[in-house]
Prior knowledge:
Elements: E1 14-20, H1 27-32, H2 34-41, E2 45-49, E3 52-58, E4 64-69, H3 73-79, H4 91-94, H5 96-100, E5 103-111, E6 117-123, E7 128-133, E8 136-141, E9 147-152, E10 160-169, H6 171-174
Antiparallel strand pairs: 1-2, 1-6, 3-4, 3-5, 5-10, 6-9, 7-8, 7-10
Amino acid sequence: xxxxxxxxxxxxxxxxxxxxxxxxxxxxxxxxxxxxxxxxxxxxxxxxxxxxxxxxxxxxxxxxxxxxxxxxxxxxxxxxxxxxxxxxxxxxxxxxxxxxxxxxxxxxxxxxxxxxxxxxxxxxxxxxxxxxxxxxxxxxxxxxxxxxxxxxxxxxxxxxxxxxxxxxxxxxxxx
Length: 175
């Protein structure tokens, strides 16, 4: 009998940014109480939901597709027509290359004004990845089963367009 099919999903469950224009919370305060977040929103915090459409590329740029967050690489590649049904016949063997490649999700988001402080919160980053905003590394993750938070430097975000990038390293090559 064949082994059970299992893929590494390179998933992003949720990625959100909280920006303050007046008061500021630390990452620990946000993680400690959701009520603190609601209270701080009354004094000038804005929640920036980064869910939605992202650009997905592999390590050498030969594959480009539209990605969705929350989501994962395999589902995005199936939507783009790059992969067929991974459970059909021997596709589990044929698609092992996906787990051996590195993948990047990237998108542009806009802010109306530069915040005085910001916190990036990410959940379900599977598994080894680095997050950068406007080309500056802000977070490294290596565990899908926890929430990651990073206080962002005040000068990092600017009014108008900003770019966030989540670069996943193959867990196979990482191990």
